[in-house]
Write a structure and sequence with these properties.
This protein is 65% helix and 3% strand. It is mainly alpha-helical. The chain has a domain of 196 residues: Ferritin, CATH 1.20.1260.
Length: 295
């Protein structure tokens, strides 16, 4: 029997009868997340042979391994709901699905990696904590597992940023500040367009797969991350983000037309991501066929 949540929605296991919208929505949520975990990891792969120390390279390798693992965890959720793993990547190559705006960019300098990861990981954790309250229990459990491991990545990013700000020279500290100012608007956009006035019409909210609106998640994230970056010594430009007397965070609204263009594979690293995935699928096709017993 499906169980009830505190919000009044029914919760479902894979074997429970459930509305088609819940099944299809959970499959889409899990497939999209799997795609972004697997393709998003290429941001870090690009720095494996450029990390400035053996320790940092090991930490980066551990993050890459974790992210690929996260992709497979949520891909299994999608697979159980009828979405083959290979189809997740093929849909991306064929233009049916997109990766998040942030994964269409690469890190230009090592100093940019720390604040970029700090903002990205903290936003992802906040988002996963929200989605884990959703009604499809296998996806909620997968998110809680992913979230726990993301906390290690957050600590890595925090340590890396602190290290450069503490021991780096003036030029390195300037690059960290620039990296923060570059990635902050991207993450504000990653959390989605304002939806306070329209959330009640969103079917994923209505059926309980999207427990919180974009604005709620963004405010929760800003409440957590802004004190952290200020404690690190980074300057938060009030033109980008500022706190109103009410306590609510105000921010420079992203150019949503430009964000949409980036998501539609119009970003600086979009083609490189597509080419890498296409080469990997082509290169490994004989091995996949062998594993499937059809070689």
């Amino acid at each position: 029997m499906p169980m009830a949540t505190a919000a009044g929605h029914r919760c479902y296991e894979l074997w429970d009868p459930m509305p088609d919208e819940v099944r299809e929505g959970a499959r889409r949520f899990a497939a999209v997340q799997a795609l972004n975990e697997l393709v998003g990891v290429l941001q870090y792969v690009e720095w494996l042979d450029r990390a400035p120390s053996h320790t940092r390279r090991q930490m980066l390798m551990a993050k890459i391994q974790d992210e690929v693992g996260h992709g497979h965890v949520v891909a299994r959720v999608a697979e159980d709901l009828g979405m083959p793993r290979e189809r997740i990547l093929l849909d991306y190559l064929e233009g049916r699905t997109k990766i998040h705006n942030i994964f269409h960019y690469s890190f230009a300098t090592w100093e940019e990696v720390g604040p970029g990861l700090l903002l990205t990981n903290s936003a992802a954790i906040t988002q996963f904590q929200s989605l884990a309250k959703g009604v499809y229990l296998p996806y909620a459990r997968a998110l809680r597992k992913v979230e726990r491991e993301e906390s290690f990545h957050y600590q890595h990013a925090l340590d890396l940023t602190h290290e450069i700000l503490t021991h780096g020279d003036a030029e390195q500290r300037r690059r960290v500040q620039e990296g923060f100012e570059l990635w902050l608007p991207r993450i504000l956009a990653y959390l989605g367009p304002p939806d306070t006035d329209t959330l009640h019409t969103n079917r994923m909210w209505q059926v309980g797969l999207k427990p919180d609106g974009n604005d709620e998640v963004r405010q929760a994230w800003l409440n957590k991350i802004i004190p952290v970056v200020r404690k690190l010594g980074l300057h938060v430009d009030p033109a980008l983000v500022r706190q109103a007397p009410s306590g609510e965070w105000e921010f420079e609204m992203p150019d949503w037309a430009q964000v949409k263009k980036v998501i539609a594979n119009g970003g600086p690293s979009s083609q490189r991501r597509l080419d890498w995935v296409r080469r990997a699928l082509d290169r490994n096709a004989p091995y996949r066929r062998a594993l499937q017993g059809v070689a």
